[in-house]
Amino acid sequence: MPHTLLIDTEPSLSYAVPPPPLTLRQMRATCTDCAMQQLCLPMGLEKADKNLLDKIIRNRHRICRDESLYQIGDPFKNLYAVRFGHFKTYQINASGKQQITGFQMAGDLLGLDAIGASRYQNEAVALEDSEVCEIPFAGLDTLFGHAPGLLHNFHKMMSQEITREQNVMLLLGTMRAERRFAIFLDNLSSHYMRRGRCANTFQLRMSREDIGNYLGLTNESISRLFLRFKQHGWIKADKREVHLLEPDVLKALASGTKSCLPI
Q1: CA–CA separation, 134 vs 87, rounded Å?
Q2: Among 138, 139, 144, 205, which one has the highest count of C-beta atoms within 10 angstroms of its own C-beta?
Q3: With contact defined as beta carbons under 8 Å apart, do 158 and 136 qualify?
Q4: CA nearest to 214, candidates 65, 42, 93
Q5: d(Cα 213, Cα 194) in Å, to the nearest integer?
């Protein structure tokens, strides 16, 4: 609770051809070989502990764009580590509508919310063709007794998820729209930077509607915020590609130390 502007207004294109199946080499790839190991469960582990983890991670799955990895109420058996691609998770609110709870990318764990209830509390949907590593929780739980470093990493990721959820509640409850939007952009920038990608130029994988749903804002409000931030010279956008021209200003907006003045 973990988890770009002028969003294009054209409908999303769907992929008619599913992603290619995993090759034998890809299926045999280990946590040690993975570029995301410093963001995922293996971060900082000794080689022996990584080898133990490799023994229980036997399956990888390619998930097509708009396909569900799991659905609300499905029995909980596995956690899923995102190897590449992007996902969104959502719940169904009291009025029967979707409420997006987060966006996930490479290195994130999906399914943590299901541990207590033994059933998935969210639905996870791929925003683009993606790949995940399946981590059987029963096997992982057994490993914790043999690899204290792994248990420490798991607790750290659980803590980050709790913090993310708390921040979302604060975001939706008390903050002005401009600050919500600045936090969203600043968080995306930080996520990409930690993954070794450009922090100030990236592409949105989620739709304008999804961003509005997540931030508790209407599509019209999101469009106005895009325009206002562009007019202030803080961002530049070309379809889904966004350039953060004034990242320090966005951080100030996100922290609440600066206000967005009207144009």
Answers
A1: 15
A2: 205
A3: no
A4: 93
A5: 25
Q: What gap in Å lies between CA 59 and CA 64, rounded to an integer?
A: 16
Q: Where are the beta strands (DSSP E) in 85-230?
A: 86-92, 98-105, 109-110, 123-126, 130-136, 201-203
- Cβ neighbors of 72 (< 8 A, separation 6 or more) are 91, 92, 120, 121, 122, 123
150's enclosing H/E stretch is helix 148-174
130-136 sheet: strands from edge to edge: 59-63, 130-136, 78-84, 109-110
Tell me the C-alpha distance between 173 and 169, whole Å: 6
H and E: helices and strands count for the chain? 8, 11
CB 104 within 8 A of CB 123: no
Q: What distance in Å separates the CA atoms of residue 146 and residue 136, rounded to the nearest whole number?
A: 16
* DSSP-based three-state secondary structure for 61: strand
**CA–CA gap between residue 59 and residue 56 (Å, rounded):** 9
Name the 3-class secondary structure at 257: coil
Encode pLDDT of 155-170 as tens digits.
Answer: 888 888 888 777 777 7
Backbone phi, psi, residue 213, to 5°: -60, -45
Q: All domains of the chain, ordered by start, with CATH?
A: 24-160 (2.60.120.10), 175-255 (1.10.10.10)
177-192 tens-digit pLDDT: 999 999 999 999 998 9
φ/ψ of residue 111, rounded to 5:
105, 0
The per-residue pLDDT for range 108-154, each reduced to its tens digit, is: 999 998 998 999 999 999 999 999 999 999 988 888 888 888 888 88
